[in-house]
Amino acid sequence: MGNNEAGLWNTFMETGEIPVQVDPIIKRSWERCRKYEVNHHKVEKNELLSPARLRETIQENRQLVEVATPIMEDLFMCLRGLGFMVILADARGYLLKCFTDDDFSSHARKVMLCEGANWSERFKGTNAIGTSLAENQPVTVFATEHYVRENHILACAAVPIKGPGGKTLGTLDVTGESGKGSDRVFCMVKMAAQNIEREMRLLDIQTRFNLNRAKYEGLMELMREGAVMIDEDGIVREMNQSACKILGLKKEECLGENIEELFNLNNLWVIESATSHTRELTVSTKNGSTLVNTRTKRIYGPDGSPQGMVAIVNPEDKSASEVTGKKSGRGLPERGNVVRYTFDQIIGQSKYLQQVISICKRVAKNDSTVLLQGETGTGKEMLAQAIHQESSRRNGPFVAVNCAAIPPELVESELFGYEEGAFTGARKGGKPGKFELADKGTIFLDEIGDMPLQAQVSLLRALQEKQFFRVGGQESKTVDARVIVATHRNLAQMVEEGAFRQDLYFRLNVVNIFIPPLRARKDDIPLLVNAFLDKYRAKVGRPELKLLPETLEILQGYSWPGNIRELENVIEGLVNVVEGEEITPRDLPENIRNRQKEKAAAAKTGTLQELEKEAIKKAIVDCGGSISAAAARLNIGRSTIYRKIREYNIDIKALIG
Ligand SMILES: Nc1ncnc2c1ncn2[C@@H]1O[C@H](COP(=O)(O)OP(=O)(O)OP(=O)(O)O)[C@@H](O)[C@H]1O
């Protein structure tokens, strides 16, 4: 305590005048203490909590104490042996936690610096704890700067601790014998207080995050509808119990899995900017297929970047099983897939399509194997279903298998089933394959061109001998199933290249039907556009929405690499997105609007395949290498884009450097 400072305190006490040399913070505090009529010679009344009240007060400030304690311990370790005390007080000035150096404990006792004591200015006059809380800022109080003489033996520094919302929760203080305080100690207190604040913020974020999570999990569970949340890579991040029930899977089987692989889906990302999107989907899981109605909504982060999608899933009520007249308890056929299409639902008046339909109707009358060839989205599965519906097997199952979606090592067990113990993970009691499930009905082998060669051998044997063995089985099985296969590939060329077995090709090529791409039957486009407009206008309740003739003209000029599926998706997107009453050319997706450029490019590059390859390359580059985004931009499914990448030998790494 310097004489000078002592002189300032004496002057104030004797004259009531505060000398100008007194630090403004201390000056304001002295004025407050005078107003509170604090006795400046000694503390008249110490306020001390009972042990029970102290425990309650600590409980009320539990989070602050829990976060601060380890940081205070560290600070105390740094100051150990130097005669200091590290103190945490609450916002009212009650000391909640103290770490005291042995050398200082007798001083502390003298002035009642202990847990439970109140060090606000009203009780103790000017001091770092009370004054930092009153001023709401870091404060040092040395020796005679203390208002009460008995505290002149102290030097202290305190820094208020603010909670995440900015409210002062308490103060962190270091007190020593007068003459001990230094700037370095003050700095250390400030840093420790900042650490406490940072930890409190993190804890708050964590708590709010957990709360939000619990809130939305609670909401999701309350919903009768199924809800699934996926991230931008299509990974399932959340789903509710209703969704599990509808989709026939357990939550733990889905979380962390890719939705397209899980449910054998395509084209989930067709709309980049739509606020919401409604569609019917057939979801196929290891437990079978279900037709569902989905409403999806893209979700965006604070910076506007897409973060994933939420899907609301409902079982489809007007199931196509009504068409077949065959229902199980849930309104779905007992085995096999939902059959939705008959020839009546196939839209198109073009000569080509009419020829295709008339051949299909004829072959429906007999049991011959049918090979449907055509680009993706041309309606191969639709025709296969229509053939089944027109045939005498219409009351039997229709079992669709996407050969490209099954891992090569599982193709045989999927098609022919397996016996218990056939391999690790094999189900108890074994499992029937798709052929067995298709007994008395039709089996539709889609993407047959993607079937692994090994499986081709087994398929050929089954077709020739009309019997097969389950994997790991000894007993041969005979089934009565009509076989329809489809591919977007040129099988004859694949045979030439050795990629497809010639004997199987001959076996399948009994009735070979080629479905022309949409660009080869442009006269069907207006009919299809109108039909899809009707469907989606009704769905979203916008009967007034019209498509301008100039928009239709552009749609007719586009090459539709994704064919009818792409056209349907585009119309659905427009109905959902367009705000006014008219769909103008400007509303069309960029790739369609730029058909002039496309035409020019086609003229330059020659074939449509080359054009398609270039379009895929450009989309991948434009989307920074994200295949999902590129597929969405091109309005094609992810499996389609991957297939085309393989087909055209596109080197993604080379593209994006
Ligand atoms: N002529 C048509 N009239 C009405 N809708 C059609 C027609 N052709 C196809 N579609 C619709 O287009 C979509 C794609 O048809 P489908 O799945 O049968 O094509 P695909 O050739 O089997 O495709 P992929 O090879 O990609 O499996 C379906 O939603 C189907 O309803």
TrEMBL record:
Q: Which positions, given as ranges, span the membrane?
A: none
List each copy of the Sigma-54 factor interaction domain by range: 346-576
Top-level taxonomic group: Bacteria
Region forming the signal peptide: none
State the organism named in the record.
Thermincola ferriacetica
Q: Name one GO biological process term.
A: regulation of DNA-templated transcription
In the record, what terms sit under GO molecular function?
A: ATP binding; sequence-specific DNA binding
UniProt domain PAS: residue ranges: 212-264
InterPro entries noted in UniProt: AAA+_ATPase, AAA_lid_NorR, GAF, GAF-like_dom_sf, Homeodomain-like_sf, HTH_Fis, P-loop_NTPase, PAS
Tell me the SMART domains matching this sequence: AAA, PAS
Pfam short name (any one) = HTH_8
- What name does the UniProt record give this protein? GAF modulated Fis family sigma-54 specific transcriptional regulator
Task: Kindly give the NCBIfam families that the UniProt entry links to this protein.
Answer: sensory_box
Q: Which keywords does UniProt give here?
A: ATP-binding, DNA-binding, Nucleotide-binding, Transcription, Transcription regulation
